[in-house]
Structure formats: structure tokens, C-alpha cells
Amino acid sequence: MTLKRTRHLDIYITINELTKEHPDYPISFLCELGNINRASYYKWKTRAESENDILNERIADTVGRIHYEHPDMGYRRIRDTLAHDHSINVNDKRVLRICRKKKVRSIIRHRYNCCTKPASDPAYVVGNILNREFHSDNPNEKWVTDVSEFKFGTGADEQKGKIYLSVILDLCDKRPVSYVYSDHNDNPLVFNTFDKAMEANPGVTPLFHSDRGYQYTSKEFHQKIQEAGMTQSMSRVAHCIDNGPMEGFWGIMKREMYYGKKFRTKEDLIRAIEKYMDYYTNERVQRNLGVLTPIEFHNKKLMEAA
User: Fold this and answer.
1) What is the mean predicted confidence (pLDDT) over 47-76?
2) Do 80 and 115 form a contact (C-beta atoms < 8 A)?
3) Angle between helices 294-305 and 266-282 (to 10 degrees)
4) Residue range 45-69: average pLDDT?
5) How many Å apart are CA 279 and CA 291, to the nearest integer?
6) pLDDT digits over 166-213, tens only?
7) What CA–CA distance (Å, rounded) separates 272 from 240?
8) In 10 A of CB 210, how many CB atoms?
9) Local confidence band at 5 (pLDDT 50, 70, 90 cut-offs)
10) Cα–Cα dist 53/47, whole Å
11) Are strands 207-210 and 142-152 parallel, antiparallel or unpaired?
12) What mean pLDDT value characterizes the chain?
């Protein structure tokens, strides 16, 4: 449902927008200024408004539903969701205008603070082999990982606690290769995440990058890496950007699912984490993946390689 391109379309649109913002502007003067015929402008305006109104109403209605379900979305992500889920292909500026008209704005969450304290007495340390080369052409070439904490229990009479979430991401398709949560930030949490990733992707040998947390610098984990035939890489101390994609994932997840929310119980928090991980993998489109979800991009890459 796109308008047919006309010779003076840009001028028509400009005059139309000006008269909406400034109704007192004389049409005759604007048409003369744009060197177009007044009758031609009105002919275009009658046709254009009928088509535009239908499409704009459809966009506005869909934008409202998207914002209700995902109040964290800005206009760019809304535009991508319109294209991916609703077959509405319009540019960013049009969606921005409609968002402003409907007073749709993303909810600003707290900024995620990265950087894990390195192990005080690491058994095994390697250099930053990844070297911030975050692009990967194929799945299972580069994996990054990290652990982050999530708190539950909000009232004085409620039991409070923490859940630690360990995630491995693939740098090609931004797909969570595996994730495991636990009450404790310990070796079993990280080891189980790694084992789960290998069970789902047997025989792969990606470059494996992490920070210098004590789990990743342990002899036991290094042995796992060696047995899998992988190369290990670690961020430098106090250089969070060395693991930028992983830190970016935590920032996105916590803004969209965690900050500003209250989880009364551990079970409430676990349900929210599991729901978000499924949403991120299977529903959340990303512009840098060609407006596809991680799993769609992953499957596309597998088909191209077949």
C-alpha cells in the first residue's frame, strides 16, 4: 500500500506537512513557491490522504499494541517489528512521527554496570585473543560468556535472595547457545552451562571468550576447553568492552525484563528469565541480523552452508 511516485511528490508532501503544522499558511503562496499547480496539489492531496490515512491508522493501531506488550521499545525497534511481524514496511521517520503523535516513548531503565572482579589467584590465564573482533561469519566460530545476578523479594516480610544466570552467546547470530541459573555463582554453574552448550552443539570448536572470573581461570575449566579442542580467550582486567557483546546482552535483558519490575518470589523471577530467553531467541528481531530473530538468522546461515 505505497503511493505511486509522482514528479513533484516531495514538494506536495512538504506543503502538506507545513499546512498541518501551520494552518494559516496560504496554499496558493506555497504552491507558487514550490512552482507547482494548485489544482495538481489538491488532486494529489485528495488521493494521498485517503491512502495515507488508511495506512497511518493501521500503523498507529499496531504501534499501540506493540508498545503495550513491549514498553521498552524505541521507534527503531518498533519499525523493525512492524516489518517482521506485521508486513508493514515504512521508514523510521514515519514511525517516529506516529509514535510522537501517540505519545509513545520507550521506558528508560537503569544503566547496566559491567565489569566482574577478576579472580585474586587465577590458576590459568590467557590473553585477549578475541581482540574485540566481534564479527563472525558462521555459527559456532566465536562464543562469549558471562554470569550476572538477579534479585527477588521486595517487601520487608518477603524472603529475599539472588539468582545467578550464566549465558553463552554465539557472536554470529547472537543466539544464546545455552543458559543455566543457580542460587550460587560457583564452578558448577559455569561448568553446567558449558556442558549444556556442548550437548546441543557436539563437535564444534569455537573460540571461547570470557572475563577473568575465578570459574573461567580454574584448572578444571581449562581442562574442559582443552578436551573440547577449543581455544580460550580472556578479557583484560578492567576492560569490559573486551567482552562487549556479552555486556550488551546483559544491558538489553535487564532494561527490558528486570529493571523497574518487582519479583516477589524466586519462582516469579525464574519464570520471567525463562520467558525472556525464549522471547530474545525466537521473537526479538535485531536490525544487525537483517531484521531477523537470532534463531531465524541461525537457521538461515545453516541453510546457506548446506
Assistant:
1) 78
2) no
3) 40
4) 77
5) 15
6) 999 999 999 999 999 999 999 999 999 999 999 999 999 999 999 999
7) 26
8) 26
9) very low
10) 10
11) parallel
12) 87
> pTM to 2 decimals?
0.73
pLDDT tens per residue, range 264-280: 999 999 999 999 999 99
H helices of the chain, in order, are 9-21, 27-33, 38-69, 75-86, 92-101, 187-200, 219-228, 244-253, 266-282, 294-305
The DSSP output letter for 185 is: -
Strand order in the sheet with 207-210: 176-182, 161-170, 142-152, 207-210, 231-234
Cα-flanking dihedrals φ and ψ of residue 181, to 5°?
Answer: -120, 155
Q: What is the DSSP letter of 241?
A: G
In this structure, which amino acid lies at residue 195? D
Residue with cell 509513545: 104
Nearest C-alpha neighbor of 224 from the set 187, 252, 249: 187
Beta-bridge partner residues of 209: 144, 233
Of 242, 243, 250, nearest in space to 110 by CA: 250
Name the helix (H) or strand (E) containing 260: none
pLDDT of residue 214: 92
